[in-house]
Write a structure and sequence with these properties.
The protein is mainly beta. The protein has 1 helix and 5 strands; from the N terminus they run ββββαβ. It has a single domain (4-60), classed as Single Sheet (Rubrerythrin, domain 2). Strand 1 (4-6) and strand 2 form a beta hairpin. It binds zinc ion.
Amino acid sequence: MARKACRTCRLITTKSHCPICRGTNLSDSFSGVVLIFDPEHSMIARKLNISEPGEYALNVR
Ligand SMILES: [Zn+2]
């Protein structure tokens, strides 16, 4: 399965819709992958407005 990034919350998923925001606005063109394990204590998560653990794209086109 191809990995895609959600344009709304940047989560990377192999599903046809985003499991976090339920959106279907996915892009297969993304760069910069960051893993968030503990969003509450992660500076990156706070900066990117991430509240759920997971794999996220820094740039989604
Ligand atoms: Zn999403």
